[in-house]
Amino acid sequence: AQTQGRSQYLFYSPEINARLQERLTLESQLYGALERNEMQVYYQPLINLHTQKVTAVEALVRWKHPTLGLVSPAKFIPIVEANGLITAIGEWVLRTACTQCRAWQLAGLPAIRVSVNLSARQFEQPNLVEVVSQILQETGLPPSYLELEVTESFLMADIQHSVKILNQLRELGIWLALDDFGTGYCSLNYLTRFPVNMLKIDRSFVQDITSNPDSAAVIDAIIALANSLQLKITAEGVETAEQMHYLKRRGCEEGQGFYFSRPVPADIAVEMLENSYQL
Ligand code: C2E
Ligand code: CA
Ligand code: CA
Ligand code: CA
């Protein structure tokens, strides 16, 4: 009886219990969050480092919780990824982002791409290609303005299947980016098999470019790799002028990060777009 009591105590430890409670509460509140219009899409500009113009925006989902305020996707994406709600949320983000990008085009603004993150769960949906194709038709966004971001970690789960789906997506005429590049399996020989157009250097390498020679070396190597495979390259998490100048000197084409702008609502993103083209 004593041992049983002890193991029960461990299982119901107050911290674990509190974290579990928080997660369960958030999870129950996530059901219906879309329908209650609590989800919002923010946009973070991608900047051409040579012209300083906005070339694209990345769509990043936000949850406006009725009492907690904005909840970070880092907190709720894992929950909806686990319970499957991500499929509906991801589709809504995609539709919202495509609609927004098309609206900017119709308003006569400079044409930019919109980039949307795909989750592992969405990538496993048998109708993913149909859903993307349907949303492009419905919103009228020309496919060449949509970019989908995928990560090595979920592509590696079933390489043959991933290659097949990526090829089908490419056939729609959209762009594909490998997100968080450098953090996953270092799958250099698979990289040539994945029909992606762009690598996004993970922000952990960008962060300490100026302080850690190893990070700078990794960045140099990724840029060289991208050039030899004729892939476009974006650096994530650019926070300082030093980082921006380093990347530019090394021939990195695009950058994204707080140095240029945080993710912002659509009306603010469009101001940045206009200003960068001095409209
Ligand atoms: P991610 O795709 O790597 O997105 C970039 C994240 O880095 C964003 O965090 C962005 O706000 C942040 N960031 C950008 N520039 C800087 C910088 O200069 N410094 C720092 N410290 N951070 C920067 P966010 O919006 O909190 O999103 C976190 C992650 O949640 C995303 O990482 C992505 O994996 C996921 N996520 C966000 N929106 C979606 C979505 O619609 N669908 C899916 N499947 N995942 C999403
Ligand atoms: Ca991303
Ligand atoms: Ca990323
Ligand atoms: Ca990520």
Descriptive notes:
This protein has helices spanning 2-11, 14-30, 73-83, 86-106, 120-124, 128-139, 152-155, 159-171, 188-191, 203-207, 213-228, 241-249, 266-276; strands spanning 39-48, 54-65, 69-71, 113-117, 146-151, 175-181, 198-201, 232-235, 254-255. The protein is α/β, with parallel strands linked by helices. The longest helix is centred in the middle third of the chain and has 21 residues, at 86-106. The N and C termini lie far apart (76 Å). The structure holds ligand C2E and calcium ion (CA) (3 copies). One calcium ion is lined by residues 179-180.
Most strands sheet: 8 strands, mixed, barrel
Q: List the ions, cofactors and other small molecules found in this model.
A: ligand C2E, calcium ion
Please report which band the strand proportion falls in: under 5%, 5-15%, 15-25%, 25-35%, 35-45% or over 45%: 15-25%
User: Structural class of the helix and strand makeup?
Assistant: alpha/beta
**C-alpha-based Rg, rounded:** 20 Å
- For the biggest β-sheet, the strand order reads 1-2-4-5-6-7-8-9
Average pLDDT level:
92
Organism: Tolypothrix tenuis PCC 7101
GO molecular function: cyclic-guanylate-specific phosphodiesterase activity
Keywords: Membrane, Transmembrane, Transmembrane helix
Protein name: Diguanylate cyclase/phosphodiesterase
